[in-house]
Structure formats: C-alpha cells, structure tokens
Amino acid sequence: MDERLRRLQEIEGVSGDEGRVADFLAETLAGVPGVAIRRVGDNLIVSRGRPRAAVLAHLDTVGFTLGYGRELIRIGGPATEGGEAVRSTVEGRTFRGRVEKGDDVWLLEGAAEAPPGSRWVWDAPLAQEGDTLTGAYLDNRAGVWCASRVVEVCPDVAVAFTVGEEHSGRGAMVCGRILHDEMGISQALICDVTWHDGPVRRGGGAAISLRDRFLPRRTFLDRVMALAAESGVPHQHEIQSDGASDGAAIERSGLPIDWCFVGPAQENPHSPHEAMQWSDLEATVALYTYLLHHL
Asked: I want to staple 64 with a disulfide (CB 3.0 to 4.6 A). Which of 72, 124, 142, 270 is the partner?
C-alpha cells in the first residue's frame, strides 16, 4: 500500500480540525524543488513555476462532535446505520467507542471519560487487496493524495488544499480569492471523489462531471473534455442532479474562476466502508498532469 495515502487516511481531520493533515502535507511537500507553501489558517496553497490553472482538494472529512448527554452531533453527512466504530484523539489520548441509536439521535457507546466537544471519526483503517482500496475517508484523502502527487510531477501548478468542504465550503472561498486576485488564476479543477453510480463505475478511470447540483461553464467544460479525449488517459463522464464540491463554493463566491470536477469514483460514500480502485487514482494523476500542461 502507498505509505502517503495510508498516513493521510489515518490522520483525524473533520471539518474545522484539519490542522494535523495540513501539517503532514506541508512537511511532505516542503522538499519538492521550487515549491512555495502558503498557509492560511489550515488551508495550504502549494505552488511551483508559473501556474495557469489551479487544483482544489479538500482536507476535511465527515464525523461527529460529542455533545451533551453523549449525543453524537453530525459534522457533514456521515452515513450512519449504528454499530460503527469511532475514535477521538484529545491531547494525545485516543478514545474509542461505537455509534448507537438513541431516541431520534445518535449516541456514543463506551469511552465514558471522553470530553464533550471532542470530535470523532470513523475508526476504520485503510486496506488494499489487489487494485481495490477499502476503508474510511477515501473522500477526500484520495483526492488529496492525487493533488499532492500532481505537485511533484507538474512543473507549473498551484494546488489549494482546502478546509471545510463537508461543512461550509469556506476554505475554497478563501483560497479562490488568493488564487485569483494574487496569482492571476481564473481556471480550476476540483480533485475530489464522486459516486460509483449509474454508468460511472470505479475502475473506469477518472470521472469528469458535466454537472452536479451546480453547473460548470460549458465552454470550459468542453475544453476539459476535449483535452481528456486527446490525452488517452482512461476517463468517464458523469451527470448528477445532486451533490456538490469545492466547485460550489467557487460558484457562490462570485469569483470569475471557471471550474470543473475531475476525480475517481467510490462506493459507499461517507461510510467506514468506502471502496475505490487504485488504478483510478493513477489515472486521475495522469489526467491532471495532461490537463494542467495544456489548459
């Protein structure tokens, strides 16, 4: 298994608590030749050369806040059925418990000493069998892994590792302003994961989304699809009526930045049992490398 992806997946980092993930990435990418790293809160903007387009990949995951009466208050949209293992690390001490159904709420079973206000994540390590990856938080640690590899292989690139996508989208708005106003970038690719759904299947290469709840500008989307066809990299086209990404935050920000979602498909989203193909991650990096060179 790839060690970087394994480490990314095991670091706790729900929306609002992405600092440890940002620390790991900043340390990992600091040695890339010609790289510049700017930290804004727990957002990271990592750049090399003279980028013409940006990549956005969100650092945060879904999870829970421990509230009064042992209630687990959702952060984002965790796919909860009951019985799932969860953990929380507070001041170096790790607590473990399970999610149980209460009266119209989800409750923490076990970990009686865990403090209210602590933030909880799925306790499901990453596993690989052949080409298949399974575990929690491939959304979006897989996208972060792809974007970090793009930093290493592309001489002209800007990657914004953003916070809060599962909660508010604020990180993309903050980074989008810097990318546009200070770096002169007006086109972006969203490196996130999407659904194994309908004709879009894991194992089919990177998915280019024609739309989700939001609509990328058709002219930019057509350019991305034409370049993808030229690249020869395995990819597929997605059409959704719901769901959103950091592209939604760029859309709402009012910034004149064209955007398009490009990323691998996964099964069982927001659960401890997410699944995707390693070959799709490799295809995503290859497609981004081609797109960033030609956009």
From this structure: 72
Query: Tell me, which fold does domain 63-122 have in CATH?
Result: Elongation Factor Tu (Ef-tu); domain 3 (2.40.30)
The total of other beta-carbon atoms located within 10 Å of residue 241's CB is: 7
CATH class entry, domain 3-62+127-294 = alpha beta
> Which residues are paired to 90 by β-bridges?
93
CA distance 161 to 285: 16
84 exposure class (CB count in 10 Å sphere: 0-12, 13-18, 19+) = buried
Enumerate residues 6+ apart whose C-beta is below 8 A from 77. 62, 166, 270
Among candidate residues 154, 186, 192, 193, the one with its CA nearest the CA of residue 288: 154
Rounded CA separation 195/108 (Å): 29
Helix (H/G/I), strand (E/B), else coil: 85? strand
Tens of pLDDT, residue by residue, the chain (295 residues): 899 999 999 999 999 999 999 999 999 999 999 999 999 999 999 999 999 999 999 999 999 999 999 999 999 999 999 999 999 999 999 999 999 998 889 999 999 999 999 999 999 999 999 999 999 999 999 999 999 999 999 999 999 999 999 999 999 999 999 999 999 999 999 999 999 999 999 999 999 999 999 999 999 999 999 999 999 999 999 999 999 999 999 999 999 999 999 999 999 999 999 999 999 999 999 999 999 999 9
Q: How far apart are CA 288 and CA 263, in angstroms?
A: 9
Residue type, 45: I
String of b and e for 172-204 (b: at least 16 CB within 10 Å)? bbbbbebbbeeeebbbbbbbbbbbbeeebebbb
